[in-house]
Write a structure and sequence with these properties.
The protein has about 675 residues and is mostly helical. Helices cover about 60% and strands about 0% of the residues.
């Protein structure tokens, strides 16, 4: 309380000075810091917790105001870590250390790097031995009480590792205690396959996921976390070491050794009330985390790859293992096309789904660039078809993934608009990259959308391999679209390997599982008012081009700065979007009343007018992009869009031009 009074600017300086004098007396004459440390091990949990909070506040205050590290606390901390497993106050020690570092990271006025240097320098030597000891300490033979304490120590240790990684990513420092997770990851992987509590295994996997995504500490660090700091020359090397350890473990069967709970995770537990009518299923939180860990590890490994054959072989091997693992726990995947896995696994977590989609797209573009560089002017149509076939088998074809994504949101442009405005996902970066690919690979997109349309029309489960060349032709009446799908030089959608015949199941729209983003950032709602109430935060990009990462060396997460929207701007967007929605509905009603010929000749419909009605998936996709383009343009004209979308609109306009030129009527 006294420390809070001292730090309050509302209290007079003289009074704050008095409080400082009182604390000085308490420390020098009464040894209050030593007494607080002793109280941390009290059997009274509330007293122990309050003592831990007090000593953490005291140490943080001394670091901030006096630029000194409390010697009493430092001595206790080093002794506790060095004496493990004999010491009894490991959990309390780690909690206090975590609280101190977290408060330093949250403070906007501190010279954080200098202060943390005082904390990490004496810890480096002791922490290395402690890291190896706590992760190699076996819990199999311990009694119930000691097991509980050991598990509590591990939970505190995981939380402490996260603040170490967060401090490294944010500040660019590279102390040994901050780096140890990256080159000693094998201990953690071994623990996830041991007999420790499922919750601890899950926390370890979530820690690996946050580390690989550069999102460690996102819950408590103010502002956005940078990605690859120029001040830390070892960060990329350490990330590569971590990725290689993960991939080596996966190649040795690590995924199959991880037990996945058969019960889904709910808020507050894993038991659903009978009246909730929630379908039971596996723990998809850990399935999503494991999927992202593997995908990000592959992306990091491929960043410096110079051989397309190496990427192709590794992608096929690791994605095959991932799909086999997922199918063991998600039985509906057995009857779906391989590329459907991403929408099914990540349906409840839109930010993770977009991270996964962006990662797979990055890998695809990397291979495609290397393949074209190696091919030169040679005609390698068969090799290209083999690669496209592999992307389907491996569940990473970018066009399939995008169409499944659109299908999961019911082709609703308002969801895309929300993703573009929100700073909570990487959708802008993913979307710009994908549109650039779509611009160059239009025929491939048309071919795949045609297969979606055929399967949907028959309402049966049909494998891509059964969609013969002539079946695709007869499904299309538009001659140019027919040529786009059937030209042997341009036709890239090929059958899957005969040994693997995954199938794609397209149900009726009413039965589709639809992605519904979190209420805080969702625009997909049942009424216009609730739709517009979802605008909460915006992205501070100077231009949508800022999200593009052209070179292989810069294929990392963009540094996104969140800019809160003021009340006036939020109200204007709400009013404008309501008008847009009402105008669109009125236009739709008018267009439905027009004769078919008049509708086709209507020049006011920029994208959809020239799309064949025999390919409803393509028509819905282009209609969705058309409506998104109109919404962005209208908001931009009224200065309501949070960043300059000129590059994005240019890409959407280019897609419109291609769709019209390739499908003339």
């Amino acid at each position: 309380m006294m420390i809070a009074k001292i730090q309050s600017q509302e209290i007079e300086f003289s009074i704050r000075r008095k409080y400082c004098d009182i604390i000085t007396v308490l420390l020098k004459e009464m040894k209050s810091d030593s007494k607080l440390i002793c109280l941390c091990s009290s059997s009274d949990k509330l007293l122990s917790h309050m003592a831990s909070k007090s000593i953490a506040s005291l140490v943080y205050f001394q670091l901030k105001e006096e630029n000194t590290f409390n010697v009493t606390w430092l001595t206790f901390c080093l002794k506790t870590l060095s004496d493990f497993p004999k010491s009894d106050q490991v959990a309390e020690c780690l909690w206090i250390l975590r609280a101190i570092i977290r408060d330093i990271l949250k403070d906007k006025d501190l010279q954080k790097a200098d202060i943390l240097k005082k904390v990490f320098t004496p810890l480096d030597t002791a922490f290395e031995g402690f890291y190896n000891s706590i992760l190699s300490h076996r819990l199999n033979s311990c009694q119930d009480t000691s097991c509980f304490k050991a598990e509590n120590n591990l939970i505190g240790f995981i939380d402490f590792l996260e603040v170490l990684v967060a401090s490294r990513i944010q500040l660019g420092s590279h102390f040994k205690c901050q780096r140890i997770l990256f080159f000693n990851t094998s201990y953690i992987l071994d623990l996830t396959c041991s007999s420790i509590h499922y919750f601890i295994k899950k926390k370890f996997i979530m820690l690996l996921k946050k580390s690989l995504l550069y999102k460690a500490g996102e819950d408590f660090v103010s502002g956005s976390l940078p990605t690859l700091s120029l001040q830390d020359p070892y960060l990329y090397k350490d990330m590569l070491a971590l990725a290689n350890i993960v991939l080596q473990a996966v190649s040795l069967g690590w995924l199959n050794q991880i037990p996945v709970s058969g019960k889904a995770s709910y808020f507050g537990g894993n038991e659903a009330q009978p009246e909730d009518s929630i379908h039971s299923g596996p723990d998809q939180v850990i399935l999503r985390a494991l999927s992202l860990v593997l995908l990000k590890a592959l992306e990091i490994k491929f960043q410096d790859s110079i051989k397309a054959a190496e990427i192709k072989a590794d992608l096929q091997s690791f994605m095959f293992q991932l799909l086999i693992f997922l199918k063991q726990h998600l039985k509906p995947l057995l009857n779906e096309h391989c590329c459907a896995w991403l929408s099914m696994v990540f349906i409840e977590q839109d930010d993770d789904m977009l991270e996964a989609a962006k990662t797979l797209l990055t890998i695809y573009l990397k291979f495609d660039r290397l393949w074209h560089d190696a091919a030169g002017n040679l005609c390698l149509a068969k090799e290209k078809e083999t690669w496209i076939c592999l992307t389907h088998e491996s569940g990473c074809n970018p066009h399939c993934i995008f169409l499944y994504f659109l299908k999961s949101i019911a082709f609703d442009f308002t969801v895309l608009l929300d993703f573009l405005i929100s700073s909570e996902t990487c959708f802008l970066e993913y979307f710009v990259r994908y549109l650039k690919l779509l611009k160059e690979d239009w025929h491939h997109f048309v071919s795949i959308s045609n297969c979606f349309a055929i399967v949907s029309k028959r309402n049966v489960c049909v494998s891509f391999v059964t969609l013969s060349h002539q079946e695709k032709i007869t499904c299309l009446t538009d001659s140019s679209l027919e040529n786009a799908c059937c030209d042997p030089e341009q036709h890239t959608l090929v059958s899957l390997a005969s040994s693997q015949k995954p199938s794609i199941h397209m149900e009726k729209q009413g039965d589709d599982q639809v992605l519904k983003p979190n209420k805080s950032n969702s625009l997909i709602c049942t009424d216009n008012t609730s739709v517009l109430d979802c605008f909460q935060s915006l992205v501070n990009y100077d231009s949508s081009e800022d999200s593009e990462l052209e070179s292989a060396g810069n294929e990392c997460l963009a540094n996104i700065k969140q800019m809160p929207l003021n009340n006036q701007g939020s109200t204007e967007i709400r009013e404008e979007t309501v008008r847009m929605d009402l105008d669109d509905k009125h236009h739709t009603l008018e267009s439905k009343a027009l004769p078919l010929k008049q509708k086709r000749s209507n020049p006011s419909s920029p994208m959809v007018c020239n799309i064949s009605s025999n390919n409803p998936v393509l028509l819905k996709s282009m209609k969705c992009l058309e409506e998104l383009q109109k919404a962005i343009s209208r908001l931009q004209r009224r200065n309501l869009f949070p960043y300059n979308p000129a590059a994005l609109l240019k890409l959407l306009s280019h897609i419109e031009t291609i769709s019209k030129s390739m499908n003339p009527l």
